[in-house]
Amino acid sequence: MRKYHALPVTLLAALALTACQDGTGTNDEGAARPEPASATVTAAHPAEDGDSGKATGGTTGTQGTSGATGTQPTEGDKTAKGDNSTKGTTATRVSCNGSNTTVTAQPVRRPLNHMLLTVKNTGSKMCDLTYYPVLRFDEMQWVPRPIKDSKPQAVTTLAPGESGYAGVSLSAADGSGEWGTTGHKLTVGFQGRTPNSDGGPSALPALPAKGVYYDSTLTVTYWLRDMDDALTY
């Protein structure tokens, strides 16, 4: 049975999200750095200049219908990770969210300190996984930034029964991350068709009983069609 609820309004307000264009992407506005657990960090868009997405800042950027920064693809766009342009027009598709999908979160052996998010379309219509997941462990007050290099060139669209993926880099393998802690509850938020908009109910995938360790280097990929691609970063 899937679990979902609306992403807390207080969290969205704390992020100070800013859409810089219409529904086609956002411009770069720099990245914020997470503070100790007692502080609230204001989110900004990830930096473009040489940023690998592994910085310690928590931000919400935007994808090209899955993205941190850059331009959201049009329906005719092709992508190296798969062309979804044949899956119907935007008007015939809905947004993927916690009401029409099941979401699982599974730590993996490789890469080290990574977790895989899997979203399966359980509805009767094709749905779009736009931009990237907005993650929140427990009462975390900053948003993990997206990995810019993982941005696809087209929307990740799921037909009924199909699955999409996002990889989560939980902590620095060399121990350089700060404020490491163990999360026991995960909320996965979905973005709508415009950057940082509400995509519908969030999901609450179960975590291992022992929880999941993460630190200030926590990052997430954009929504992708291929599991191996999601675990590349």
From TrEMBL:
Keywords: Signal. It comes from the Bacteria. Residues 1-21 form the signal peptide. InterPro entries: DUF4232. Pfam families: DUF4232 (PF14016). The keyword Signal applies. The lineage of its organism: Bacteria, Bacillati, Actinomycetota, Actinomycetes, Kitasatosporales. Residues 62-74 have a biased composition (Low complexity). Residues 26-107 are annotated as: Disordered. PROSITE patterns: PROKAR_LIPOPROTEIN. Residues 96-223 form the DUF4232 domain. Residues 82-105 have a biased composition (Polar residues). This is DUF4232 domain-containing protein.
